[in-house]
Amino acid sequence: MLWLSTAAFTLLFAAWLVFGIIAPPIRREFALDDVQVSWLGALAVLVGSVLRLPLGMATDRLGGRRVFTAMLVVAAIACGLLATASSYPALLACAALVGLAGNSFSAGIAWNAAWFERARQGFALGTFGAGNVGASLTKLAGPLLIALIPVGGLAGGLIPGGWRAVPAMLCLALLVMALVVWQAAPADRTPGKGRALRAMLAPLACLRVWRFGLYYVLVFGAYVALSLVLPSFYVETYALSLAQAGMLTALFIFPASLLRPLGGWMSDRWGARPVTYGVFALMLLATLPLAAPALGIGAQPGVGAFTALMVALGVGMGVGKASVFKYIADYFPADVGAVGGLVGTLGALGGFALPLAFGYLKRGTGEPAMMFLVLAALTVVTLAWLHVVVLGMRRTRPFPVAVGTALDA
Description:
Shape: globular
Low-confidence stretches: 399-408
CATH class: Mainly Alpha
Mean pLDDT: 86
Distance between the termini: 31 Å
Strand content: under 5%
Structural class: mainly alpha
CATH architecture: Up-down Bundle
């Protein structure tokens, strides 16, 4: 179940963020500006955010095998339509449909939480979340497909060419994965079956849930935003080819995805709080030099230094995405579907808002590094809130509390 859900999520995530790599050729073909291109990725992210809560709860009630199979089929249809889009309104409509794939995260979190005991949930949820690496599949394979398949396509146009080859290949892969999940996944576990809807929603009134949501905006929402905009940033700022930009973006995506199991293991061992503290500190150290050009106190780093800072940022995000969901498993073990759905929604909404903010700030100021100033400010606010909460807990509970317990901040 763990490996099937992770493989399926990897493909769904690749479909969700497909505009990150096909945006430059789409921009040229349809003569779009920065904001128009930003809306394509942002709309997909928005739609991939708003259904996370109901799908997490649906998975608790119906089981992950049913929910994931349905999502894989819907995403395949969306990618097939995207491969035939011929106008900007059609692209927007396809972006909305492709965005449905993004809601698979909360469904997968609920699916895995039903199968693993609390002591192993950090590692299990981190392993599943490593499916975020799907964003790098399109970054690495996309430019190769675009270069290899001529614009006119193959087999008399049956296989689309150019950028359209990317969603077309995703369509086929998603259909195959849907068949595999349906046939091979074990029988569903449905811990939420029979529970009243009101009881499942009750934890969402807790302020702590919304605080976790802010943490997830920083470690996941910003990750989604950067996955979408970095290829274009590399192309425009450093005059690199799309293939080079995709490879360098993948260097950020790999640690931001593949280190989630490590982050889950660290959180199981030492607790979510110290791990999250370290994540936010690392992210702040990485974003400050990236934001310096926007403040007029430094030059744009060279491509090597910039990529190294992005890798450091990716390391923090990869570990932090797991530690935030370890928090959820510790505090709300019976409501991972609902709470994880809301936290995932808030994080993904950050992934919707941030690319738009980056696009508008770039158009208004002409400074591409403004997006890192926004990211640095968000990191400061998030770290400050975590620290204030911990200080408050120490005042009200002067005796030490073991990390990783339900009392951990």
